[in-house]
Automatic annotation (TrEMBL):
Native source species: Novosphingobium cyanobacteriorum
HAMAP family, alphabetized: UPF0102
InterPro entries recorded: Restrct_endonuc-II-like, tRNA_endonuc-like_dom_sf, UPF0102_YraN-like
SUPFAM superfamilies recorded: Restriction endonuclease-like
Protein name: UPF0102 protein POM99_12350
PANTHER family per UniProt: UPF0102 PROTEIN YRAN
Pfam families xref list: UPF0102
The family this protein is said to belong to: Belongs to the UPF0102 family.
């Protein structure tokens, strides 16, 4: 798959993730938020929790098992640290989640995948 097609698939995956999050009670606050430290695919809120969400789309369910690694999570964590003040209020829970998407499967959300200092 070339870079343009991968970008298209990634955007499609993010759109599907937004719909799925909405259907499960989350409110999407922002998409593709970039700062110098990195990028967050989706920022969403549910109650007093704000999640910075990395979305990974893969062509097969099996490929999802290797879609996320510590390097990618560190990049999202750095961006989330810089953005937390903009989206979360004092005393709210802030976390990093991952949404994994592949054709023919329901999205899979992994909550709180990164701990500060990890």
């Amino acid at each position: 798959m070339n870079r343009a097609e991968a970008e298209r698939q990634g955007r499609r995956g993010e759109t599907l993730a937004c719909w799925w999050l909405w259907l499960t009670g989350w409110r999407v606050l922002a998409r593709r938020v970039r700062i110098g430290a990195g990028e967050v695919d989706i920022v969403a809120r549910k109650g007093r929790t704000v999640a910075f969400i990395e979305v990974k789309w893969r062509a097969s369910r099996a490929a999802l098992d290797e879609a996320i690694d510590a390097r990618r999570l560190r990049r999202v964590a750095r961006a989330a640290e810089g953005l937390a003040g903009k989206y979360a209020r004092q005393g709210e829970d802030v976390r990093i989640d991952v949404v994994l998407i592949a054709p023919g499967c329901l999205p899979r959300r992994i909550a709180n995948v990164w701990q500060p200092g990890a």
